[in-house]
């Protein structure tokens, strides 16, 4: 690899660089490129989508002026925040204060290494992929605690402590749900888990058996709690703790935390799509065309399918944000330890029992669970139509317009 | 036993209420928002929807202003500044200045009630925001113009007839006191 990079730079002005230095520099350059051209627009787009979705659910419009339909709002926000004064409290622990946003961001950015965007489009297919993901997302706890403590502000400290308690507690239901999937898949690697599933919805792990269905919702709720999303956004608690652990941060440092949060939304969706929805799997032949003959089209379709699945769950997270009130911190702990941990255990135990009986799965059970989910979805659509027809909030508009 | 019922009751309540709540928010998501995006994305111009006696920014028709200074005297804030000069040779009086400071004006309507010809009126305009305070002073006289002298027996020129009529209608319908 080193000599390859060295040969690549032979004809350019950088050929005097020693190979031992060129390789790490090229890695940094690639990381920088990925960060600026993929992750930043992704987080920005997620923030735009969140603001528009949230606004429409509250019967208002959301940002729609900067760029067509407001898609460049995040760029404007970024530029605005870079221009702001960098205020560091005089009594704050300076080194920790400066370091905290980067650790939170690092914990989020490092997850992109194992996210499978396509059958070949994965940076490193670690054979402990999902374990690495669960571990690295916990790095954010360290950053949040640092932010809360070093701000020298009792509200920030409270926010940081609550957040640490929340994230650490919800690791358990998340881990148990993931364990359920791992039992069925037989592999910790992300690509391995996807390959065990099929492209059709009834081949996904989501409908493998009823316990997996419940485990998915356990996982999704726990992931929301880990990402500090409503209804578990007590650490940010905009109306309660000023801004929780980010109170003392201003300008770009402040935006880093939210950058990590919005990007994390996408990562949650990506993990959910990988573990439960078959990831990038697409049918082998589409409209009579064998896709393996057109690798570029196949790769693009896989990327698109994965992207849409991940964004579906990001949309659901935004939807939940627009629906539910915030839970109190004791209710949050209650829910985790008294409800979610037992239910996750039951799911895991149930799946294991079913695996003992049917080691290769039971198609009837799969189709049955899939059918049940379709019925629930149709009932949901009916409720939405009912609401559209019946719930008309009384609006007293000025009669002149 | 009641503990277990309560436990499962809690789970059932959580799931059913979240389900229903998400149906409600999704139904709002697919509706048209109730925001009115004034000023550039509205169906009809607001000026066209204002009521008849709406007291907008003051305007003066200098062609029928007699220079009686009734509006300047009656204004409680003294936002009208009128300057009249007598030309010594022709013995004709001209306007040199007619400024209305719309920043000070409180839109009480006393000036339009006091006007004998209905030349000072409230328009339907309300968007008068400006970048500097000097722009908030409206100048209705740019070069000296003579005062209006009402002709005995009415006007003959059609343009003046129309202007006098507009002033009269304004006085009758809007500036005068309402019939009990």
CATH-defined topology of the largest domain in chain B: Alpha-Beta Plaits
Estimated structural class of chain A: mainly alpha
Q: Share of helix among residues of chain A?
A: 55-70%
Instruction: List low-confidence stretches of chain B.
Output: none
Shape type of chain A: globular
Summed up, the domain count of chain B is: 2
Order of helical and strand elements of chain A: HHHHHHHHHHEEHHH
Terminal CA distance of chain B: 77 Å
Write down the Rg of chain B. Answer: 29 Å
Structural class of chain B, by secondary structure, is alpha+beta
Low-pLDDT runs of chain A: none
Number of strands of chain A: 2
Widest β-sheet, arrangement of strands of chain A: 1-2
What percentage of amino acids of chain A are in beta strands? under 5%
Number of strands of chain B: 6
Largest sheet of chain B: 4 strands, antiparallel
* Nearest-integer average pLDDT of chain A: 85
Strand count, sense and barrel status of the largest sheet of chain A are: 2 strands, antiparallel
Radius of gyration of chain A: 23 Å
Approximately how much helix is present in the residues of chain B? 25-40%
Can you tell me about this structure?
The complex is a heterodimer of chains A (401) and B (180). Chain A is mainly alpha-helical and 401 residues long. Chain A has 2 domains: 24-83; 85-371, no CATH class. Chain A contains 13 helices and 2 strands. In chain A, strands 1-2 form a two-stranded antiparallel sheet. In chain A, strand 1 and strand 2 form a beta hairpin. Chain B has 180 residues and is an alpha+beta fold. In chain B, a hairpin with a 4-residue loop joins strand 2 (80-87) and strand 3 (92-101). The A-B interface holds A 53, 55-61, 319-320, 322-324, 339, 343, 380, 383-388, 391, 395, 397, 400-401 and B 10-11, 18-31, 33-37, 42-44, 46, 49-51.
């Amino acid at each position: 690899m080193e000599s390859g990079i060295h040969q690549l730079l032979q004809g350019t002005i950088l050929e005097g660089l020693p190979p031992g230095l060129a390789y790490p520099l090229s890695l940094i350059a690639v990381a920088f490129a990925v960060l600026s051209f993929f992750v930043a627009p992704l987080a920005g787009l997620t923030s735009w989508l969140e603001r528009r979705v949230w606004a429409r659910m509250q019967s208002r419009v959301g940002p729609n002026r900067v760029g067509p339909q407001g898609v460049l709002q995040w760029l404007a926000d970024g530029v605005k925040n870079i221009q702001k004064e960098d205020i560091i409290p005089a009594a704050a622990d300076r080194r920790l204060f400066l370091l905290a946003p980067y650790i939170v961001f690092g914990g989020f950015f490092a997850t992109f290494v194992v996210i499978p965007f396509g059958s070949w489009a994965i940076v490193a297919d670690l054979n402990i992929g999902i374990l690495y993901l669960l571990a690295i997302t916990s790095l954010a706890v360290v950053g949040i605690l640092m932010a809360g403590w070093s701000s020298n502000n009792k509200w920030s400290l409270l926010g940081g402590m609550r957040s640490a308690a929340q994230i650490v507690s919800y690791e358990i239901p998340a881990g148990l749900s993931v364990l359920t999937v791992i039992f069925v898949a037989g592999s910790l690697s992300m690509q391995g888990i996807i390959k065990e599933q099929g492209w059709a919805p009834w081949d996904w792990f989501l409908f493998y058996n009823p316990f997996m269905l419940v485990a998915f919702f356990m996982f999704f709720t726990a992931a929301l709690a880990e990402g500090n999303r409503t209804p578990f956004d007590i650490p940010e608690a905009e109306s309660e703790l000023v801004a929780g652990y980010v109170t003392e941060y201003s300008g770009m440092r402040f935006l880093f935390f939210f950058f990590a949060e919005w990007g994390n939304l996408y990562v949650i969706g990506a993990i959910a799509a990988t573990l439960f929805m078959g990831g990038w799997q697409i049918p082998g032949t589409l409209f009579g065309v064998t896709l393996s003959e057109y690798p570029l089209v196949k790769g693009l379709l896989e990327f698109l399918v994965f992207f849409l699945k991940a964004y579906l769950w990001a949309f659901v997270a935004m939807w939940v944000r627009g629906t539910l009130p915030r839970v109190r911190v004791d209710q949050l702990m209650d829910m985790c330890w008294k409800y979610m941990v037992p239910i996750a255990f039951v799911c895991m135990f149930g799946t294991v029992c079913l695996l003992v009986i049917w080691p290769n799965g039971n198609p009837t059970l799969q189709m049955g669970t899939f059918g049940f989910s379709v019925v629930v979805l149709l009932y949901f659509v009916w409720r939405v139509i009912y609401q559209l027809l019946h719930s008309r909030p009384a609006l007293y508009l000025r009669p002149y317009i | 036993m009641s503990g277990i019922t309560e436990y499962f009751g809690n789970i059932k309540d959580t799931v059913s209420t979240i389900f229903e709540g998400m149906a409600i928010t999704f139904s709002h998501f697919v509706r048209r928002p109730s925001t009115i995006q004034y000023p550039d994305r509205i169906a009809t111009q607001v000026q066209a929807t204002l009521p008849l006696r709406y007291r907008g920014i003051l305007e003066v028709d200098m062609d029928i202003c007699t220079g009686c200074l009734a509006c300047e005297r009656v204004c409680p804030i003294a936002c009208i500044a009128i300057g009249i000069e007598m030309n010594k040779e022709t013995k004709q009086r001209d306007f040199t200045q007619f400024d209305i400071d719309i920043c000070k004006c409180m839109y009480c309507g006393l000036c339009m009630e006091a006007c004998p010809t209905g030349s000072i009126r409230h328009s339907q305009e309300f968007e008068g925001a400006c970048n500097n305070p000097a722009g908030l002073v409206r100048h209705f006289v740019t070069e000296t113009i003579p005062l209006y002298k009402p002709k005995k027996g009415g006007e003959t020129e059609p343009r003046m007839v129309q202007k006098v009529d507009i002033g009269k209608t304004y006085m009758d319908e809007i500036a005068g006191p309402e019939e009990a």
